[in-house]
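During the reporting period, our protein records have gained a structure token line. A sample record is set out beneath this paragraph:
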Amino acid sequence: MDALEAIKTRRAVKHYDPEYVMPAEQVDELMGLAMLSPTSFNMQNWRFVAVTDPEVKRAIRAAAWDQAHVGECSLLVVMAADLKAFDHEPERYWRNAPKAAQDILVPMIKPFYADKPELQRDEAMRSIGIAGQTIMLAAKAMGLDSCPMIGFDPARVGEIVNLPADHVIGMLITVGKATQPAWDRPGQLGMEQVVVRDKFD
């Protein structure tokens, strides 16, 4: 499936075959594709908790309003990010770049984010969102379906996955084999309502 078709056919699917198990190699491939997602300053601040253990999924389901697809999916990805990635050896993010680029960019990273908790969180959520779309489109291209989720208790999920104190959870994504199609798109806005040409009136 090409990228345009994946974009057009990706939907939020909430009914999965609980007997379907994604091969470990496929999970790794999907996570590897997610890791190609862009991040500011190449910080790669996302952290993907790839949950396949039925007991862990069951615990997260309980923290997600008992939504069935959390337990029935083959893969549950807890989309998290390291808020302090900017401060963790930032030179490694540019180790393969030309020295001229390293000399300019690496010293910029820490001052850009230090002492700016709101910006750190904004950056985490940007990275999580971009990577989340990568996962969902890649899953569709693999013949799988997915669903992004915010209906859960992030503090409880953080406890379940032992989230470090300087990390934040942005969303959950379920991935698996659909047993029911998604509804028709329930109410798409027109382009004239969402696309602004050059500037707002």
